[in-house]
Amino acid sequence: xxxxxxxxxxxxxxxxxxxxxxxxxxxxxxxxxxxxxxxxxxxxxxxxxxxxxxxxxxxxxxxxxxxxxxxxxxxxxxxxxxxxxxxxxxxxxxxxxxxxxxxxxxxxxxxxxxxxxxxxxxxxxxxxxxxxxxxxxxxxxxxxxxxxxxxxxxxxxxxxxxxxxxxxxxxxxxxxxxxxxxxxxxxxxxxxxxxxxxxxxxxxxxxxxxxxxxxxxxxxxxxxxxxxxxxxxxxxxxxxxxxxxxxxxxxxxxxxxxxxxxxxxxxxxxxxxxxxxxxxxxxxxxxxxxxxxxxxxxxxxxxxxxxxxxx
Length: 311
What we know:
alpha+beta, RRP7_C, Alpha-Beta Plaits, five-stranded antiparallel β-sheet
């Protein structure tokens, strides 16, 4: 893998892993880093990095310390692990209903704050003080600005020369819950959750679930009344659309995202000079094809010879 800080290939970030009780030797763990370029762009892509092969015991304080050792404090903002991304996608099958302008008449910020509070209340109590990640997991780091991304990639490129690798977990004593026997002991204690607390979280979960199902049905019903690319509207028997399930809501959201991406691509030639240049190119191609067709017709006439009608 190339270590090109200016390119989009993976750069290798070596991290020194200190010895532990089960393995009394230092080791080097390689995390692969590149600019974040997801299939569906987001506003923060220019100031975020995509990380691959993160350590299994990764936490936000760990990576905050690593990036602080690379470029100093104040550059690192947050990190989203692969497990957190999947949970965020699975919890809301019909959030596109608000992106399409179908939000309630109340302020969108107030509605989102209330829904976020409902979703937090619907979560069961945590029974692990720290979550471990599977091997070769990924994460996305959000930095302060685009300049911070460039500084981090340049700092990673210099590590190969200086050999001064960041030390994993350095100066984090007391900031991160320990693993090992204390971790298992706390898990056994937290597994005995209060019955009333669990029941309250369960009721909140079903309230959120019913609200999302209702939003999915509204979204699907509205989309059924919108014309497709050919201008046709799907008509259902009886004039009423059946309630949408989660699959239909996901499919509707996917179509809306594709429609927005197509509209964005069509806006690339928005300026007049771009339109003029494109029309000139199209006219030049038409003239070229016309001249080629004329030459083909002339060649066919010469090959057949002069036409003589039968008497």
